[in-house]
Amino acid sequence: MNEFALIFRNEENPDVQFSPEQMQGILGQWRNWIGGIAAQNKLANPGNRLGVEGAVIRKGGIVTDGPYAEIKEMLTGILVVRTETLEEAVELGKGCPIFSAGGSVEVRIVIPTTME
Fold this sequence. Notes:
The protein is an alpha+beta fold. It has a single domain, classed as 2-Layer Sandwich (Alpha-Beta Plaits). It is 24% helix and 32% strand. The protein contains 2 helices and 6 strands, in the order E-H-E-E-E-E-H-E. The strands form 2 sheets. A 4-stranded antiparallel sheet has the order 2-5-1-6, with helices on one face. Strands 3-4 form a two-stranded antiparallel ribbon. The protein starts with a strand and ends in a 7-residue tail after the last strand.
């Protein structure tokens, strides 16, 4: 079994605002989608959302505020799944609720490292 990271991206759009009811509906879609992956025993971790605050550290110890200074697209979260093939991980990604908000899912193999 291989592990694949499903990386969620969305464009920052301050004009898009969701009501509390809409947010509950969106969160329910995410719970159902992730629960379906877990029910298939293909969930390697429960996933995490990423906040908007952060910093970028560059060569020479240069630190800038926020990781999104140069791009409009934001990395908003990551979920790691276990599947045999990239194609199977892509199929799981196709069900992601982020598409209804104009986002995308990047699928990447996770390459284990050893510190020996």
